[in-house]
Amino acid sequence: MAAVPPKLPPLDGSLGVIQIGLVLGTFLFGIETLQTFNYYREFPKDPKILKGLVGGIWFFELAHTISSWHAMYTITVTFYGQPQHILAPPISLVYPIFFHGLIAFCAQSFFVYRVRVLSGQWLIPIGCFALNLARLGCLMLLFGELYQTPIFTLLATKFRKEVIVVSSMGPGVEIVVAASLVYYLWSRRGGKGGSTGFQQTNRVVDSIVIWTVETTLITTVSGVVQLILFLTRRNDSSWILFFLIQAKLFSNSLLASLNGRTRFRTPGASVVAYDSAGHSNSTGRSAPGAFVAANPSDVVIRMHQMSDTVYSDDMLRSKV
User: Fold this and answer.
1) Does 3 fall in a domain?
2) Residue 203's CATH number
3) Is the dihedral of CA 103, 109, 112, 114 positive or negative?
4) What is the pTM for the complete model shown?
5) What's the pLDDT at 41?
6) What keywords does the record list, in alphabetical order (predicted)?
7) Which of 206, 216, 222, 269 is least surrounded, with the fewest CB atoms within 10 Å of its CB?
8) What is residue 319's predicted lDDT score, i.e. its pLDDT?
9) pLDDT surpasses 90 at 285
10) What's the mean pLDDT in 93-106?
């Protein structure tokens, strides 16, 4: 009589969530690739350091995707029917932690830099950058430990505190950056009931505020959900789903923010410059691409031209 093979435990909370995370992550990587192509096509005059940042993040995402799928193939095909390899996966499933840390650091540092340009101050940007750097350090520490002992159950036991700290820092930085950008943009507009004195410019500033919230909301929510699942669901690994896609959300958020500058492009738009003291000065009409800020800390907003706002090519060229 043939021996009955042992019954495998339910894999929905382990292998299932990893598979769903990889499928969603690959879909988001496709969107990111399209956004990267559009960025290089639409903004060939951006600073080299900014174009290098976009290209570097895309290569990190490619490596993140390849290593994740290599691990999935090894678990489901090479080690088929051997559930012990799910909790002790191949080393390739540890590399996404490394690439996730680099991607999150680069993307969040870019948004922190925007706060620095817009506010003209150092306190909040330095604090956010320090948290961002500490998060990167914690992720590299986890990567090093799991590289030596690739057992994912250690994340919920031995390194539980470290995972909680890392998962808290991400949303924390996102919230501070988004709130700072909205606050400084709103103050430049004139605050509640205030106005720049130009109706079209007011609309541009309002659109930038909405766009800022939109591009940071999804990354913040995913980070909070990941933390909640990690704290409340100790019997499965459902939180890994959000960890696997969060790097893709960071990079797509950055690219959406950069590519969103095309929304307000119109030739010969009127220009309003805001200096670091908050004073405005109408400079009339100007050709696209002209630099109109006399002081490097000035904030330039062209009505209907996102490329010359605080997110502008000109501001980036003057700062980088």
Assistant:
1) no
2) 1.20.1070
3) negative
4) 0.79
5) 95
6) Membrane, Transmembrane, Transmembrane helix
7) 206
8) 42
9) no
10) 94
Whether residue 7 lies inside any domain: the answer is no
Give the pLDDT confidence score for residue 9 in this predicted structure.
Answer: 62
Supply the DSSP string of 58-78, one letter for each residue.
HHHHHHHHHHHHHHHHIIIII
Range of the domain at 222: 12-264
Q: What is the pLDDT of residue 152?
A: 76
Work out the average pLDDT over 69-89.
81
Encoded tokens for 115: 């706060």
Please count the structural domains in the chain: 2
User: Are residues 278 and 259 part of one domain?
Assistant: no
**Mean local confidence (pLDDT), 167-177:** 91
Residue 70 pLDDT > 70: yes
Question: CA-CA-CA-CA torsion for 31, 263, 275, 49, nearest 10 degrees?
Answer: 30
Q: Do 65 and 144 fall within a single domain?
A: yes
pLDDT for residue 190 = 63
Q: Following DSSP, what letter does each residue of the chain receive, concatenated?
A: -PPPPPPPPP-IIIIIHHHHHHHHHHHHHHHHHHHHHHHHHH-TTS-HHHHHHHHHHHHHHHHHHHHHHHHHHIIIIITTT-THHHHS--GGGTHHHHHHHHHHHHHHHHHHHHHHHHH--SHHHHHHHHHHHHHHHHHHHHHHHHHHS--GGGGGTTTHHHHHHHHHHHHHHHHHHHHHHHHHHHHHHTSTT---S-HHHHHHHHHHHHHHHHHHHHHHHHHHHHHHHHHH-TTS-THHHHHHHHHHHHHHHHHHHHHGGGGG--TT-EEEEE-TT--EEEEEE--TT----SSTT-EEEETTBGGGSTT-HHHHHHH-
Choose the final residue of a domain: 248, 264, 280.
264
Residue pLDDT, tens place only, 229-248: 999 987 788 898 999 999 99
Among the candidates 226, 243, 264, a domain finishes at: 264
Indicate whether 5 belongs to any domain: no
| Other Cβ atoms closer than 10 A to 102 | 20
